[in-house]
Amino acid sequence: MASGGYRPGAGRKKGSKDTKPRAPRKSAPTKSKSQPKALDPDKQKIKELLSFDLKAKAKFYNEFLARVSRGEHLSIAEKKMMAQLATELAAGLTEGEKQEAAAENLTPLEYMLKVMNDTAAEKDRRDRMAIAAAPFVHSRAGEGKGKKDEKDEKAKKAGSGKFAAGQAPLKVVK
């Protein structure tokens, strides 16, 4: 909008827009180059997470899964970290645990209800599962049949039986 809105003279003046992109600013030079390079904060975080025990890794992995399920975007480093955690957690499972997980073959609703009813699970996790499962188990007060639907059903019910419509007369085809 070179000339602006509906008010006369509003907006950017002609010729004020840069026609060439500006050069990026150069960062200030460092004082001493003899210092060893510090690890990237993401790489430090990855190394720190990989040094934890299996239970802590599982907790971090679940936090990442929760963030993804809420629609948050993970950085590339977090995605790499999540992949490494997944491989380590999968390697840490015993054969019995793997078979048990495969044998359950639960639907998402069944899984949510199972976690919700598990007293050993964390309270926060149980609450989240209850919130997620509620719309599938209990309908809202406003959902379902409305007044018009109920009226139509009553009319059909009243029109059946003794008060049902008779058969149409037979047509003779020539």
Main features:
174 residues
Write a brief structural summary.
With 174 residues, the chain is mostly helical.
Mean pLDDT, rounded to whole units?
75
Sheet-strand content, in percent, reads: under 5%
Order of SSEs: HHHHHHH
Uncertain stretches: none
Which percent bin holds the helix content? 40-55%
- Overall, the morphology is flat
Radius of gyration (CA) equals 33 Å
The overall strand count is 0
Helical/strand content category: mainly alpha
Instruction: Calculate the terminal CA-CA distance, rounded to whole Å.
Output: 77 Å
The main sheet comes to: none
Put simply, the count of helices is 7
What is the topological layout?
Blueprint: H1 41-50, H2 54-69, H3 76-92, H4 95-104, H5 108-117, H6 123-137, H7 147-158
Describe this structure in words.
It is a single chain. With 174 residues, this protein is mainly alpha-helical. Among the domains are: 39-94, no CATH class; 106-137, no CATH class. The protein has seven helices and no strands. Helix 2 packs across helix 3. The radius of gyration is 33 Å and the shape is flat.
